[in-house]
Amino acid sequence: MKILRRFALAFATVATVGTGSVLAFSTTSFGAAMLRTVGHNLVVTARAGGGGGGGTMTITITGATLVARVDASVHLTYVCDQMYDPSTGAPVPASQTSGNIFVSMQERVGSSVANGGGSTTITPACDRTPFFAGTQNQADVLVMPSGAPFKKGTAVAQAFGSACEAGFVDDRLTRESAFGRTPSRDASPIVAAPRVARWLVIAAAVALPLAVSPATAEAYLLPKLVAARLVVIALLVTLGLVAVRGLLRLRRTPLDIPLAILVASALVSTIFAVNRNLSLFGSYGRYEGFLTIVLYALLYWLAVQSLDGPKDATIVLRGLLGAGFIVAVLSLLQVAFGSLNAPGAAETGFSFGGVLRGYGTFGNPNALGAFLAMLLPVAVWEFLAARSASARWLSANVTLVLALGLLATFSRSAWLGAGIGVVTVLFVAAPPRIRWATLVLPIVALVVIVVATRSANPTTAPNVIQAAAGRVSTLQGLVAPASTGAFRLRVWEDSLALIASRPVIGYGPDSFGLVYPRFQTGNWAPGAIIDRPHMELLGIAATQGLVGLAAYAALLLAIAATFWKRRRDFQSVALFGGVVAYIIYTMFNFSYLPASLPFWIFMAAAITIWRPGTWVEVQPSKRIVSRIAAAGFVSITALSALPLVVAPYQADTAYRRGLNAIANGERQVARAEVEHARALAPWQSPYAVAAGSLALHLNSLGQPAPDADWASARMDFLAAARLGSPTPATYRYLAMADAALGRRDEAIAAARMAVQLNRFDPANQAELKLLLS
Predict the structure, then answer these.
(1) Residue 546 above 90 pLDDT?
(2) What is the CATH number of the domain that holds 87?
């Protein structure tokens, strides 16, 4: 076993360094040229030179390449023509350095005719001085067929476009303004999302899955939350600055309306929530309140605005694959070394069959499983679509590590989702004669796992293989009395009664744990708080009502309809497989922030590839009031980083120091740190609970000390209750404090609330019985 573990560690280290080097190499122009896919070529017989905007540009088509055997990538060169002032005939500099090129193409193969068109945004190196140099530029335009796909053969294409607009327009406007006359038209250029926005999205795709912080008490979710907020704020500021300078292009997508309705539903549910603070900010350790729902929507929408087309989207997807590779390697190392401590054979959230379940930088094995399941179909597509040995080796390495990382999570819902997604990709890629045979692959994989387990030597075989087979075998007893399947069925049944009690708008985002105990019919999870129904549909219906559920269903239908128009594209099928894998996971679990943040970036890239959308030009107002309002928006958005990013992080850092001080017996230091955390993030109920516990000076058995400060404890626990604490102990200690201060009626009410949140806890029942006696 030691030799095997050392070999695994060495192999993982070499694979990580080697793959990371290749990934870094591929980001350079030289490396990208070496790894470029060699596809089937289209021969363009009619190379049309054209210009737009008054003959401002000369275009020459140099060739074309098939993309995924459906689309065509047309390669062309263009030169910005010399500009002249029509009144004087003198050469003038160009005034605009961005524009668009449009390409139309037709191909005839037998009786089949393929027609298509496409466009791209260009930023040419225009000759901005009166001395014309004829600088040559290059561009690739993705042409999508409107009917039959393009094939290997001969096609006819025509290109036209506009860039480096006539300089005399700006010159005339300058002269008119100098004489005190109103310019005849606005000369502001059309500005697409700047490059910094694209790189922010790419950086977010890589960084968000990896974000952790050992300095905070919540080391996994909170760092990702504040990092995502920082990304959204930076994107809003960037686009706001672009809007102030000139014309901003905004892209419409098929998901805009259903996503907006879903957010509006969450807002209404928050306003009428059972606890507004809880529904607004979300519970500690979950953070799935209204602000996070808005964060998901903004992250998707801003990512779509920042990506120029399929090329940018593919870079984002590869960034996610790179992050997934790193997280999977870390997870496998966790399993290899964590299992040495013999976590026990019982099934828990973090172990199974004596093996630690990998969670990487996600803090939860199921969340990591959802992330890897979403990426695996795309990794398989990268492998099958690779046209060079180096690209295929790289994609094979990534696919293998992602698959092993997914296996080590022991998340059956993620396994199921990934299996369906990968089989979908293989089904489309396989030749028609053996296409249906790919559906048998999951069964073959299960048989191989079982046979390998039974033939392995129990004393020398890696435990992870046996544990994986044992996990698969649990599928036979999903409804056994002690199984997690039976747990889900019982929670689902109870959730139906919860939904029926408030069916229209629900109880508010992230409030399930505060309401569910009223409808809980059994002690399904002894000692634990059930704060999710473990099914996304039931969770939305419970928190946002049937209105929110209808909006979510419309969102899923919009995703499916958008993909359906691109179902013949191999890459689009892989992306849809990733989306399906994630959604299947949520049908047996729930939306969880570490996996949901990358999902919405993934969704933005998928929509950009499936349907780039329609750009809408937003004309900025010339009024000074509008300019001031735009500048104010940018300033307020930038300043929002203080309460949304800096304060929560510093608060949890102080809370972590307070917990460390409690462990070291430094009570006064702990009290000061906890109060500092409360001042920075007053909406977090656990901070108030910690302050109340310190005031009571609880011992190891949870009993108050003789010198307990009952008045301070009451104020702290009462604050936690008002903030929406779902912990029964909060109300039990509040009842003790009220009783000690002679507030018998308040004490009984608090004790009843403790029993309502967990009537199966003998301590809660005993406290209520004592107060009533």
Answers:
(1) yes
(2) 2.60.40
Lowest-pLDDT choice from 311-325, 472-486, 548-562, 604-618: 472-486
> By CB neighbour count within 10 A (0-12 exposed, 13-18 middle, 19+ buried), where does 715 fall?
middle
One DSSP character per residue, 183-243 reads: PSS--PPEE---HHHHHHHHHHHHHGGG---TTSSS-SHHHHHHHHHHHHHHHHHHHHHHH
Half-sphere exposure of 204 (CA within 13 A, CB side): 34
Token duo for residue 214: 């050992």
Strand partners of residue 351: 356
Q: Which residues of 272-302 are buried (b: 16+ CB within 10 A; e: fewer)?
A: ebbbbbbbbbbbbebbbbbbbbebbbbbbbb
Query: Is residue 371 assigned to a domain?
Result: no
pLDDT at 135: 66
- What is the pLDDT at residue 261? 96
The answer to whether 414 and 369 have CB atoms below 8 angstroms apart is: yes
10 three-class SS: helix
Burial class (CB in 10 A: 0-12, 13-18, 19+), 608: buried
- Which pTM was predicted? 0.76
Plot region of 757 (φ>0 → left; ψ -120 to 50 → alpha; else → beta): alpha
Is 205 among the domain residues? no
* Secondary structure (3-state) at 719: helix
Tell me the residue range of the domain where 97 lies. 41-187
Q: How many CB atoms lie within 10 A of CB 589?
A: 24
Examine residue 464 and state whether it is found in any structural domain, yes or no.
no
- Alpha helix positions (H), 565-592: 570-588
| pLDDT band at residue 110 using 50, 70 and 90 as cut-offs | low
Residue 282 has pLDDT above 80, yes or no: yes
Q: Which residues contact 35 (CB under 8 A, 6 or more apart)?
A: 25, 26, 388, 390, 391, 394
C-alpha angle 599/600/606, rounded to 5°? 90
CATH number for the domain that contains residue 697: 1.25.40.10
Q: Among 187, 218, 250, which residue terminates a domain?
A: 187
Query: Per the structure block, which two tokens stand in for 634?
Result: 């940018």
Q: What angle separates helix 593-610 from helix 195-207, to the nearest 10 degrees? A: 140
Residue 660 CB-density burial (10 A; 0-12 exposed, 13-18 middle, 19+ buried): middle
Averaged over 166-178, what is the pLDDT? 32
Mean pLDDT of 198-209: 95
Q: Among 148, 171, 187, identify where a domain stops.
A: 187
Domain count, the chain: 2
46 inside domain: yes
How far, in whole angstroms, is CA 163 from its chain's centroid?
Answer: 35
Give the Cα-Cα-Cα angle 302, 305, 308 (nearest 5 degrees).
Answer: 140
Residue 627 in this model has a pLDDT that exceeds 70: no
Of 185-199, 258-272, 284-298, 635-649, the one with minimum mean pLDDT is 185-199
The larger pLDDT score, comparing residue 244 to residue 422, is at 422
In whole angstroms, give the CA distance from residue 596 to residue 582: 9
Give me the numbers of helices (H) and strands (E) for the chain, helices first please: 28, 14
Helix axes of 412-429 and 365-385: crossing angle, nearest 10 degrees: 10
496: left (phi over 0), alpha (psi -120 to 50) or beta: alpha
Which range (55-59, 272-276, 528-532) has the least confidence?
Answer: 55-59
The whole-angstrom separation of Cα 347 and Cα 353 is: 7
- Among the listed ranges 347-361, 392-406, 415-429, 684-698, which one has the minimum average pLDDT value? 347-361
